[in-house]
Amino acid sequence: MTPQTLSSITETVADARHLFDSGKSRPLAARVGRLHALRALITENQPALEAALWNDLHKSAGEAQLTEINVTLAEIDHTLRHLRAWARPRRAPVPTALWPARARLLPEPLGVVLVIAPWNYPVQLLFNPLVGVLAAGNTAVLKPSELAPATSALIARLVPRYFADGAVRVVEGGVPQTTDLLAQRFDHIVFTGSGNVGRIVMGAAARHLTPVTLELGGKSPVWFDDDARLHRAARRLAWAKFTNAGQTCVAPDYVMTTPGRIPALVDALQQAITDLWGADPRTSGDYGRIVNERQFDRITALFDGTEAVIGGECDRAERYIAPTVVTLPTVDHPTVGPAASHPLLREEVFGPVLPILPVDSAEHAVQVINRWDKPLALYVFTSSARTRRLFEQHTSSGAVVHDAGLVHVAATGLPFGGVGASGMGAYHGEYSWRSFTHLKPVLRKPLTMDTLRLAQPPFSRRGLRLLQRLM
Q: Which of 71, 115, 355, 424 is the most exposed, fewest CB within 10 Å of its CB?
């Protein structure tokens, strides 16, 4: 990786703006061509992308295809199918008081968009927003994560080859380069990462009054009471939690259930982990590793001194943490967030450690959720329609998923985003196109039949009464 200087970053952004100002990114044919170019970049270099993801995160080829490559290709294909309809100007209503007049909404691109990606899904979370950016007719500057160096270097090599006109540009580097990028003027910024860094991004964007899309994660809770389908639910829960070694912003962060259900749930989770990654997940080619020693130390500190009921094995040299389940003691008023009694409940785990928190009832679980920040996702495993409605109607989260985890991220027709501290704005499918598009109102009021005379002085009592009726 060759970090760029401030002058080269300034020049990169200026070149992206010059291309946008030239109008070459706007025609529908140009947008379609760039989406096909992005698709070719991924499909023609799939083995190289898989190798880079293995080097950075020990992500298997199967997991890379499922969670990074195929998700992005589906986003591209969905957008190509619908882009012509999305981009078509649409008629808009005009109030009677303004008749005769005609109005329409004219979609236009925002300009130059900065996409800052995290390290945990360094392909998907960089290219998925880019699909919407290009579909809307913008140019883009990409900042891949320096914590996934193999993937970052590969993307930096490939992008100029597939976007020779410079519609997409890449800036590599760490915090200094990101800081220099944020000092530039953009027309929209997309950031995926922690809330602390999200505040920095939002503060930098405010200096230029730049709109932002922030995907910030948080502690995504799980409610479980589906005794009849215990083993199916446990398998889906284990898969959602321990995929990518738990390093997923929408991974289940903690489970709430009643005390009597915990032993059976633990047994079912143990069986599910064995089925998915074998008796020793360390030897499985499908189980990932922690991205670096700093994250390894942070995660292990969260459950240090706690007796794990499943897993708990760690190897710092290999950055390996086994799929781990920890049961927490019953307390009268359990709390999640900075005031929580246990470290595993104070911050997002973002690793392969799943705490189970005993609560009295689903209503009690709702109270726990509502005492702190709104989560990015909420997962409910129940056979009760009443319980599903309880969580849907009495909690607020970026999304609610019943009987599964993670899968809503792959639904191209659904917006993906947070609410409150878990983020702002959303993308995927048409919601991506809308996020990076300005629907400009265009109104024509003909000069003939000059009904505006009623709204102009000198005012008459009769004219004002007529205008009041029309309005």
A: 424
As a whole number, mean pLDDT of residues 345-370 equals 97
Q: What's at 17, amino acid-wise? A: R
- Enumerate residues 6+ apart whose C-beta is below 8 A from 18: none
**Tokens, residue 453:** 């005379």
Q: Are 436 and 104 in contact (CB under 8 A)?
A: no
DSSP label at residue 65: I
Is the pLDDT confidence value at 254 over 70? Answer: yes
Q: Is 410 helix (H, G, I), strand (E, B) or coil?
A: helix
Q: How far apart are CA 63 and CA 54, in angstroms?
A: 10
| H or E segment to which residue 162 belongs | helix 149-162
Q: Torsion angle, CA of 33/35/37/40, rounded to 10 degrees?
A: -130
Q: Which residue in the block uniquely carries the two structure tokens 């102009």?
A: 456
Question: Which residues are marked as active site?
Answer: 215, 249
The CB density around residue 218, as the number of other CB atoms within 10 Å, is 28
Distance CA 45, CA 37 (A): 12
Q: What is the distance of C-alpha 99 from the center of its chain?
A: 44
Does pTM top 0.85 for this prediction? Answer: yes
Helix H segments across 1-95?
A: 6-21, 28-44, 46-57, 61-64, 70-87
Q: Please answer whether residues 321 and 297 qualify as being in contact, where contact means their C-beta atoms are separated by less than 8 angstroms.
A: no
CA separation (Å) from 153 to 1, 249, 426?
6, 23, 28
Separation between Cα atoms, residue 398 and residue 327, nearest integer Å: 26
- Between the alpha carbon of residue 166 and those of residues 28, 111, 146, 162, the distances in Å are 17, 14, 22, 9
- Rounded CA-CA distance 103/146 in Å is 47
Predicted confidence (pLDDT) per residue in 92-118, tens digit: 999 888 889 999 999 999 999 999 999
Q: Measured between alpha carbons, how far is 234 from 224 in angstroms, rounded to an integer?
A: 9
Q: pLDDT per residue over 257-270, tens digit each? A: 999 999 999 999 99
**What is the C-alpha to C-alpha distance for residues 326 and 312, in angstroms, rounded to an integer?**
9
Per DSSP, the three-state class of 401 is strand
d(CA 228, CA 309) in angstroms, rounded, equals 23
